[in-house]
Amino acid sequence: MLPVLMYHNVGERERHLNVSPQALYRQCRLLQIMGFRAVTLSELQEHLRTGGLPRRTVVFTFDDALLGVYHYALPILQRFGWRATVFAVSQKLGGVTDWAPRHRHRVMNREQIAELHRQGWEIGAHTLTHPYLTRLPPEDAWREIAQCKDDLQELTGAEILAFCYPYGDLNNQIVQTVRACGYESACTTRKGLVRIGDDPLLLPRVPVAYSDGALGLLYRLWRAWRYTRLG
User: Fold this and answer.
1) Burial class (CB in 10 A: 0-12, 13-18, 19+), 36
2) Prediction pTM value
3) How far separated are the first and last CA of the chain, in Å rounded?
4) Which whole number is the average pLDDT over 189-210?
5) Per-residue pLDDT tens for 95-119?
6) What is the tens place of the pLDDT at every residue in 66-86?
7) To which CATH superfamily is domain 4-230 assigned?
8) Contacts 24+ apart (CB under 8 A), 133-142
9) 23-58: pLDDT as tens digits
10) What is the SS3 string spanning the chain?
11) 53: left (phi over 0), alpha (psi -120 to 50) or beta
């Protein structure tokens, strides 16, 4: 079993969906001491495709491509020689998170996304505008999923193979649309660890909260392990 960690922002004063740089560093240091290494989501998918999962491996994912990730998470993970996967809302780059009016965060711009890609981070798709996909007509949901992929491919010059469902909102039709658009892996908000045989388009994750330091991360990993074993 392997953990895919779910973060949003790093370093902003707003606590909602945010962790401090100090907490992120302590979590990375703990994982390093425990012998873990970090890979991107598409690297994980390669292991799933071949029917095996590497030991002591973790995936860092950051939803929404928020600016604090660029300023804080990038240099912290670089200190450990690690990379991550960040999911971008392609029509909101350089703006703010208007999909969460009570908790507005700044979003990376196109140049910052391109720089993450140059640094070896994986850029994944998170739709055009961050809607609830199951509430849209099928043609609109298709456009949100497919056009975001095209936008980010044009921006980075690389194939976009990873997707993340906004709000964790999905049904079978949405999953099949993601598959038809050529994505090879996709993250949900379902809690748990990834196991051999899991559908790569329905990957569970371990959410990390603002109050979690190193011990908080250990507790969440234990909860996810227990949930996966009992589930």
Assistant:
1) middle
2) 0.95
3) 13
4) 93
5) 999 887 677 889 999 999 999 999 9
6) 999 999 999 999 999 999 999
7) Glycoside hydrolase/deacetylase (3.20.20.370)
8) 133/165, 133/166, 133/169, 133/170, 133/174, 134/169, 134/170, 134/171, 134/173, 134/174, 135/169, 138/173, 138/177, 141/173, 141/174, 141/177, 142/177, 142/181
9) 999 999 999 999 999 999 999 998 888 878 888 999
10) CECEEEECEECCCCCCCEECHHHHHHHHHHHHHCCCEEECHHHHHHHHHCCCCCCCEEEEEEECCEHHHHHHHHHHHHHCCCCCEEEECHHHCCCECCCCCCCCCEECCHHHHHHHHHCCCEEEECCCCCCCHHHCCHHHHHHHHHHHHHHHHHHHCCCCCEEECHHHCCCHHHHHHHHHCCCCEEEEEEECCECCCCCCCCEEEEECCCCCCHHHHHHHHHHHHHHHHHC
11) beta
> Which candidate, 230, 227, 184, places its Cα nearest to that of 203?
184
Domain ranges of the chain: 4-230
